[in-house]
Protein 1
Amino acid sequence: MAMNSELLLKEQVLIVGCGDIGQRLAAYLPPELYAVTGLRRHPPADLPYLKYRQCDVSDRAQLASVLEQQFSIIVITMTPSERSDAGYEHAYVQTCAKVVEVLRAQSCKPRLLIFVSSSAVYAQMNGEWVDETSPTEPGSFSGKRLLEAEAIIRNSGFINTVVRFSGIYGPGRNRLIEQVRQAKASASPHFTNRIHADDCARSLAHLIALNRTNKTLEPIYLASDSSPAPMIEVVSWLAQQMGVKDFLSDSATNERGNKRCSNRRLLESGFEFRYPTFKDGYAELLKQ
């Protein structure tokens, strides 16, 4: 009986599409305060701090059955099954629409709804700084679909916030390191922006903690580390650390954007990065 009472005292957190970032987030939520459930179509084994439930979010009946548990906090962090307009529309737009639709039909409402978005919503190409107030006029299907999903959450009627992550790297996300190793890196002078996967999870946990103490969250947070840098600078540093002499490819391009993401709003909320620069994060990755 004591165990059941203890469980009732914990806030129930649901992570929809609970992959790598979701698992990391669950690990950073204090277990004495939160009970975390992760939704996956094909869930892996439970972890000590995370219980999984099988659910196809596009199936309204399955989703309604899950949401009957009445979660205080719902985090939507999806990964498209394919990099296409249809893949993004299904993963982001349809998921957000379905979650909001089912929640509206229920009597108990979540205290906070968080949607994990991306800096792909920005199309700036001249190396300028962007923040949460900057124009979002993406030309890519990914940016357009993410903005569409953001609007669904923003207009849901529930207290919500959107977190736009820049390029995520970390364990299992070694694309740039492999490009350097295989002499496929780009010499582009365009600025790139990144954030370590741990800081992604920690920033989400930070916002959840702020909300728990009745702090008003901003509608949008741009989450990127403190060192936007030209791609050539990043890959040159990696090559030096790795002892690789030939690392550039004439055919490699990095023309998806050229902007610098400001994390001022996130920092002003009290968040502290574990890896404030790409050198901090990649140095640890290279040790591993």
Protein 2
Amino acid sequence: MPLLIEPQLATLVDRHPASGHWSYEIKFDGYRMLSRIENGDVKLITRNGHDWTSRMPRLRAALEALPVDSAWLDGEAVVLDAAGKPDFNSLQNAFDRRSTSDIVLFVFDLLWLNGSDVRERPLRERRALLREVMHEAESPLLRFSDDFAEDPGSLVASACKMQLEGIIGKRADAPYRSGRSTDWIKLKCNLRQEFVVAGFSRVKGAKSGVRSLLLGVYQKDGSLRYAGHVAPHLSTAQSGRFARRAAALAQEEPVFYNAPAPERDREYHWLKPDIVAEVSFLEWTPSGEVRHPVFHAIREDKPASAVTEESVVEDPASGVVRSTRERPGPRGTVLIRDIRISNPQRVMDNSSKQTKLDVVRYYDVIAAYFG
């Protein structure tokens, strides 16, 4: 039985697949959490392999009561609001206050059971085994993540209407594969991802406080691109923790290769790129910054070094990957930032088979290096 298992991750897609056997579940707004059970010993492990067992004693006790000798479970830790919807802010507050008794674990996959590695079995078989295990769970803190047979388009519309994050689709006949693939897909209600916090601003002359967090994403060459700013909404305790952490990470020069220009009414404080913030936003601006950002949380479960601009696949069958800065236009056109690309699949170079869209994407990537 492995000591650690890297979780399987979903790929963002533009639209749901038109063929194949797929299972759809709610995309929970919480912390990914894997549970390792062996002879009554339980470990709760984040997606990065951090042991958070001691932070959730009630959840550990609930897992200890499961009638299994050994198991690996995959799920999402959430806190539910009065309407029964995941509330990420309440989850953050639960960890901040060390009051985690209301954290619920929605379990959606089974990787190991009673001495047997079941990762090679199809999802539908793993889910059938998981349903039997979860049927024996007595604690209300452990819940089976149901899947839905409705049309995925209707499911996404319903999720957005309920102000949920979106849905997750999974190939029903696929094995469990650690890492990101198109066997698991996510359809979101809006753009939302993690950003590196490599600085913050405050009103000029102020000795404390944070006006905005300065956000960045790593490029393929390892450089950090400035991607805009967002006003954080932190409690008093969270503000204190951020201030202490920022003081330890302070440095004189920005790590962004395209750091924002100074402004008359504010001053910038630069940080080593270690803090991660989760932010939703409407779209990317032509300069590659987020438009209408909304702060959600400082994430402790994800490393800054892994934060890049999220890519989107048009659909799992096509495998065509593009930036979330692109969006579909009318009559087969593609919009990159505010530029309309007609006949995007027209081959521009017969020797390399590069299309018009490939060429525009290349210039879009290198444009940042030339101001």
